[in-house]
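Researcher: Excuse me, tokens okay?
***
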Amino acid sequence: MDDYIYGIIKENGVNRLRKVSYPIKELFSISDYELCKSHKYATCFNSTYSDSLCSIDVKQLASSENERNKRKAAVCFEHSIKEFEERYGDRIVAMSHRRGGWYGINWKFNDDISFNINTNFGFGSCSYFYAIFMYKDIILAPYSFYIKFFYNLLNSLK
């Protein structure tokens, strides 16, 4: 796998942020039971309700190599993100998480400076990302990006 988790972390002992990358490790022995479970992992960012892989039975898993590969990627990602979170813990300011649905990180750099990052990927006809940089409870740099899915726009015009 040539995929990474990217994060912004606070360095120990200094008030400085640093970008890190953590490789998503390929796991070679994953049980069918694990693959068939539900996974909070977005596999497709351009379709409605792509927030997770629902649980399936072993027959469904055996009938589709594509399904098996998506689920293997989800398990590898979930394993690696857990390692990433254990390694950096409360020093994480933001990270690429590939989780569908609502997700947020509220982080205080110190008593005066804070960040608020929120996402909603894969629900309904749109997704959003916003980040707010605050100094002493004053919003200095709001940033947001709103995505209206093209597929849903076409369906709403019918």
About this structure: The two ends are 41 Å apart (CA to CA). The first strand starts at residue 4 and ends at 10. Confidence is low (pLDDT under 50) at residues 152-158.
